[in-house]
Amino acid sequence: MTSAFVARDGSRWMPEYLDSINPAMCIGCGRCFKVCSREVMHPYGMDEAGEMLGVCDGEDDFNGELSRVIMVIDYPGRCIGCGACARVCPKNCQTHVAVDHRAVHGS
Ligand code: SF4
Ligand code: SF4
């Protein structure tokens, strides 16, 4: 599958799609969420045992079970590979790939 495109000035543009976020390193700062124009990821709450509690709006403490917040890629197909999220991440915990593996493998 070809994943390179051409920008308006004729230069070659290779998207770098957000592929994963390391949950052990992510501090849930929300910077990537704020700069992404495509709603690819959302902050999720986790309890002390590491179980996901659901999307975290910053106010719900999930009946006191909220232990930490991490960013989760819940809509990977929306990513256009702009790379903005990588530039603002203070933990360098994201992985980007040039090819959209989802499209290649049909998942
Ligand atoms: S690469 Fe761009 S579109 Fe994709 S998740 Fe990051 S900010 Fe959003
Ligand atoms: S910018 Fe990095 S550390 Fe902050 S929420 Fe996004 S992935 Fe996690």
TrEMBL record:
Signal peptide: none
Domain 4Fe-4S ferredoxin-type: 17-46, 69-99
UniProtKB keywords: Iron, Iron-sulfur, Metal-binding, Nitrogen fixation
GO MF entries: iron-sulfur cluster binding; metal ion binding
InterPro entries from the UniProt entry: 4Fe4S_Fe-S-bd, 4Fe4S_Fe_S_CS, FdIII_4_nif
UniProt entry tagged with the keyword Nucleotidyltransferase: no
One of the Pfam families matching this protein, by short name: Fer4_7
Domain of life: Bacteria
Protein name per Swiss-Prot or TrEMBL: Ferredoxin III
Organism per entry: Rhizobium redzepovicii
